[in-house]
């Protein structure tokens, strides 16, 4: 009886040790139709409406359902040819109508190194997307992402997104948590190290 108690405790300790040491890994899958391996984060990064907006807009956001933004890096690997993209999803609330996010200069990414206007790209036609849209009524698009820009995102303490509204006003979003660790772990898991 004592031996079975010791074995049971040992198994529980081993399982607990395995669970606590699990590294942060991206989701990776092989698309059967295209033979492209897709690497992404398990969940996209959530961006909340920023308080840097005008007082009237912030007050209106508190009364209305606010808009949210999500983004995440994507790696498409076709037989060793690697291309990156930035998946962006805007879940508009009733606070301010958002312009077409694929239109020219609709989105600007703000990092420690400064602003970068995002350029829309066509993603490979896969059986499923790298991330699932949060809101069915939202807008989703992929944008150009170089490895250099991805490294800047991982090194940056600031990650914000400026989105153009229908009236040409700017809606500001900021990361809801620390993205530095998440994006650094993503780069490491994709085998990207150093400068």
Radius of gyration: 20 Å
List the uncertain runs: 1-24, 52-62
- DSSP summary, beta strand count: 11
Mean pLDDT: 82
* N-C termini distance: 57 Å
Fraction of residues in helix: 10-25%
- Give me the secondary-structure category: alpha+beta
Instruction: Tell me the count of domains.
Output: 1
Give a description of the structure.
With 195 residues, the chain is α+β, with helices and mostly antiparallel strands. It is built from 4 helices and 11 strands, in the order αβββαββββββαββα. It has helices spanning 2-20, 55-63, 147-155, 179-189; strands spanning 27-30, 37-40, 45-49, 68-78, 81-91, 107-111, 114-117, 120-121, 139-144, 159-164, 170-175. α3 packs across α4. It is globular, with a radius of gyration of 20 Å. The chain starts with a helix and ends in a 6-residue tail after the last helix.
List the helices and strands and how they pair.
Layout: H1 2-20, E1 27-30, E2 37-40, E3 45-49, H2 55-63, E4 68-78, E5 81-91, E6 107-111, E7 114-117, E8 120-121, E9 139-144, H3 147-155, E10 159-164, E11 170-175, H4 179-189
Antiparallel strand pairs: 1-2, 2-4, 3-4, 3-11, 4-5, 5-9, 6-7, 6-10, 8-9, 10-11
Helix pairs in contact: 3-4
């Amino acid at each position: 009886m004592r031996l079975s108690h010791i074995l049971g405790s040992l198994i529980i300790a081993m399982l607990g040790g395995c669970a606590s040491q699990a590294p942060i890994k991206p989701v990776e899958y092989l698309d059967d139709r295209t033979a492209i391996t897709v690497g992404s984060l398990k969940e996209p990064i959530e961006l909340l409406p920023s308080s840097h907006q005008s007082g009237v807009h912030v007050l209106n956001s508190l009364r209305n359902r606010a808009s949210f933004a999500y983004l995440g890096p994507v790696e498409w690997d076709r037989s060793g040819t690697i291309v990156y993209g930035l998946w962006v999803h805007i879940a508009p609330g009733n606070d301010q109508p958002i312009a077409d996010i694929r239109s020219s200069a609709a989105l600007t990414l703000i990092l420690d190194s400064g602003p970068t206007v995002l350029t829309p790209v066509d993603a490979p036609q896969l059986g499923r997307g790298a991330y699932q849209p949060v809101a069915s009524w939202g807008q989703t698009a992929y944008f150009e992402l170089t490895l250099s820009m991805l490294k800047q995102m991982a090194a940056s303490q600031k990650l914000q997104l400026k989105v153009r509204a229908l009236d040409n006003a700017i809606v500001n979003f900021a990361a809801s948590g620390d993205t530095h660790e998440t994006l650094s772990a993503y780069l490491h898991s994709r085998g990207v190290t150093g400068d």
